[in-house]
Design goal:
Elements (H helix, E strand, L loop, with lengths): L4 H22 L7 H5 L9 E4 L6 H8 L3 E6 L2 H10 L4 E4 L12 E7 L8 H11 E12 L6 H13 L18 H11 L2 E8 L2 E3 L6 H8 L1 H8 L3 H16 L2 E2 L2 E5 L2 E7 L6
Parallel strand pairs: 1-2, 1-4, 2-3, 4-5
Antiparallel strand pairs: 5-10, 6-10, 7-9, 8-9
Length: 275
């Protein structure tokens, strides 16, 4: 078994199970970010584009709205079904980002919104995107800020560390924050053959849900968060959930948890061949 294969299987199985609930929880969260991310791929009119780990298809739809011919991809067939139902005029298909079936130099633009942390081998995914992009093509991907800057996951980890167990037997994966810092992002894209165009720190606030729903919200938006919670000892789980609710009550505004959502937007280009 290859390194991180258990992680890959765990992620894929989890996303197969939660495609519909993920949409209901994140349409206002991820969806509200799409425009600012896709801006980095302009111009798009008349170009061929691929959306990697497209999930419900928000990114693919935005690129199509701007005039691109788009194919959306995801490793979870349930996500492909959800995206197809939401955007029946667009093309979506199941693909492994680390082993794409497209021909070399098929696309002018590639997008990956918050998908990198779900790949067992993100370096392979970058190499595959490099392969399927035409010379001069652009890739833009987004990742969340490191946990110390990102309360959504920083608070969860802190509560579990204090009142539960962080080590609950989840399969290990690659470093989740490898692309959240400019040196890590630049190193990875250069190893794949890209040139760094920009590394942008983005900020916005999101309304998530009432504090009382936070434990279920975590389960529905993240495979690993669900695993972290549901593999706690029942006695500890009760305490962890109560403490999560208590802490998130401090972030409620008009009955909705409202959190800063710092993120990074990385854009890279495939060099043009020298004549």
């Amino acid at each position: 078994m290859s390194e991180f294969q258990e992680f890959k299987d765990f992620e894929q199985a989890g996303w197969e199970q939660r495609a519909t609930s993920y949409v209901s929880r994140t349409q206002s969260l991820t969806g509200s970010l799409i425009n600012s991310i896709v801006d980095h791929l302009e111009p798009l009119e008349g170009l061929q584009a691929v959306d990697i780990a497209s999930g419900p298809g928000y990114g693919a739809a935005e690129m199509a709205h701007r005039g691109a011919e788009v194919v959306g991809t995801d490793f979870a067939s349930a996500m492909v079904d959800v995206a197809t139902a939401l955007y029946p005029d667009l093309a979506f298909q199941q693909e492994d980002a680390e082993n794409l079936t497209f021909q070399d130099e098929s696309f002018d633009r590639a997008l990956c919104t918050f998908g990198m942390l779900h790949f067992a081998h993100p370096e392979r995914a970058l190499s595959e995107v490099f392969r399927v992009l035409k010379p001069g093509g652009k890739l833009t991907f987004s990742v969340w800020a490191p946990p110390e800057e990102f309360p959504m996951f920083g608070l969860l980890g802190g509560v579990v560390a204090e009142f539960g167990d962080l080590d609950v037997g989840l399969p290990p994966g690659p470093p989740a924050e490898a692309f959240s810092r400019v040196d890590g992002a630049q190193s990875a894209i250069q190893q794949a053959g890209f040139n760094l165009v920009s590394f942008v720190e983005g900020h916005f606030e999101a309304k998530l849900c009432p504090a009382s729903e936070i434990p279920d919200w975590y389960r529905e938006i993240s495979v690993r968060s669900q695993g972290l919670l549901d593999n706690q000892h029942p006695d500890k789980l009760e305490v962890v959930e109560r403490e999560l609710i208590n802490q998130f009550e401090d972030y409620e505004v008009d009955g909705m948890v409202t959190l800063p959502m710092p993120h990074r937007i990385v854009t890279a280009s495939k060099p043009v061949r020298e004549q």
